[in-house]
Design a protein that fits this description.
By secondary structure, the chain is an alpha+beta fold. Strands 1-3-2 form a 3-stranded antiparallel sheet. The longest helix is centred in the first third of the chain and has 14 residues.
Length: 103
């Protein structure tokens, strides 16, 4: 049986994914790192909303950020996502793995 701490961590990650726009952001980041403006244009969503969703994804440990000049660049966290197969992205939640096929 899963211990309480592991269950809480998994629930936090799943909660981070529990929004259609956050799932769309993850999908956009599968092809590579992007800044907030790029994501806003791709998704046709206001930058302030993208920033909010990225904060939730970062807090859940699903994305990481890195400052490049005046821009913050976001990417999928390599400890959670595996993009080695060009046709498949794997989300590893420890005891639970989810495979996401690429189009």
């Amino acid at each position: 049986m899963t211990d309480a701490k592991t269950a809480k961590q998994c629930a936090d990650v799943l909660s981070g994914l529990a929004d259609p726009n956050r799932i769309r952001i993850i999908e956009c980041l599968r092809s590579g790192s992007k800044n907030v403006t790029e994501l806003g244009k791709l998704l046709k969503v206001e930058i302030v909303n993208i920033s909010h969703h990225l904060g939730v994804l970062r807090d859940a440990g699903l994305v990481q950020d890195e400052k490049h000049g005046r821009f913050m660049i976001y990417s999928l966290h390599p400890k959670v996502f595996n993009n080695e197969d060009p046709h498949l992205t794997t989300l590893d939640l420890g005891w639970c793995k989810i495979e996401i096929p690429h189009d």
